[in-house]
TrEMBL record:
Gene responsible for this protein: tpiA
Biological process terms in GO annotation: gluconeogenesis; glyceraldehyde-3-phosphate biosynthetic process; glycerol catabolic process; glycolytic process
Pathway named in the protein's UniProt entry: Carbohydrate degradation; glycolysis; D-glyceraldehyde 3-phosphate from glycerone phosphate: step 1/1; Carbohydrate biosynthesis; gluconeogenesis; Carbohydrate metabolism; erythritol degradation
Active site: H92, E162
Pfam families per record: TIM
Compartments it resides in: Cytoplasm
Family of this protein: Belongs to the triosephosphate isomerase family.
Function: Involved in the gluconeogenesis. Catalyzes stereospecifically the conversion of dihydroxyacetone phosphate (DHAP) to D-glyceraldehyde-3-phosphate (G3P).
Enzymatic reactions: D-glyceraldehyde 3-phosphate = dihydroxyacetone phosphate; L-erythrulose 1-phosphate = D-erythrulose 4-phosphate
GO cellular component, one term: cytosol
Coiled coil: none
Organism: Paragemmobacter kunshanensis
The protein, known as: Triosephosphate isomerase
Database matches in SUPFAM superfamilies: Triosephosphate isomerase (TIM)
């Protein structure tokens, strides 16, 4: 499987930030892994223009479950495709928290994304309280089963495991903890979508940086990363791309 270094810009970036995209493309013309940047919706089309002809793919951070209609402020999967996106992040913990998204809603969005021809990056992860209560596998297993379309394939699905307490905090699980969750997710995904699960990239996300990327990428069943803060600067994200290419 081709590994994936994905950047989630969250609510960061205006036109000036597109210089980082050009710099990243120049520094990594043909990496041994896929590179994806997911900017805010306002930048998708312009980033796609900058990325055209380079190794960088562009994605959205959310989509609506419907393809069009009276949904003020929302964006459909078809609109993401029209803007030049190939991927969409769905069910990020910030959307589950800020917008109350449930597994059922994430599933509906993922089905819409697949129908539109996008690759869905479905995010799951436990809170600190859930980990402390020993419920991590139970929580991520339930999220995975409830958020992933049963007919997804290795060609249109990516899973991102992001412990909520590791996002933006500089804290990460231990290598053994990441290994435990990723092995569990591979097995649970097989139960959900069948043998195709073996080739679905499983990303780790949460405080991934150039300084910890190499050891995280050495973990079995870690096929890449979903990177927040460190994806905003070409030098940092490029170093993570290099670490993944070498893994
Ligand atoms: O939420 C994340 C990516 O989706 C991770 O964010 P940080 O890399 O900033 O911790």
């Amino acid at each position: 499987m081709r590994k994936l270094a994905a950047g989630n810009w969250k609510m960061n970036g205006t036109a000036a930030a597109l210089a980082e995209v050009s710099a990243l493309a120049q520094a990594h013309p043909a990496p041994a892994c896929d590179m994806l940047l997911c900017p805010p919706a306002t930048l998708i089309a312009r980033m796609a223009d900058v990325a055209r002809g380079t190794a960088i793919k562009v994605g959205g951070q959310d989509c609506h479950a419907r393809s069009s209609g009276a949904h003020t402020g929302d964006i459909s999967a078809e609109m993401l495709v029209d803007s030049g996106a190939s991927h969409v992040i769905l069910g990020h913990s910030e959307r589950r928290t800020d917008h109350g998204e449930t597994d059922a809603q994430v599933l509906a969005k993922a089905e819409a994304a697949l129908k539109a021809g996008l690759i869905a990056i479905v995010c799951i992860g436990e809170t600190e309280a859930e980990r402390d209560a020993g419920r991590t596998l139970d929580v991520v297993g339930t999220q995975l089963h409830g958020s992933v379309p049963a007919d997804a394939t290795a060609a249109n699905l990516v899973i991102a495991y992001e412990p909520v307490w590791a996002i933006g905090t500089g804290r990460t699980p231990t290598i053994a903890e990441i290994a435990e969750v990723h092995a569990f997710l591979r097995a649970r995904l097989t139960a959900r979508i069948g043998a195709a699960a073996a080739d679905v990239p499983l990303l780790y996300g949460g405080s991934v940086k150039p300084s910890n990327a190499t050891e995280i990428f050495a973990v079995p069943h870690v096929d890449g990363a979903l990177v927040g803060g460190a994806s905003l600067k070409a030098a940092d994200f490029g170093a993570i791309v290099s670490a993944l290419s070498a893994a």
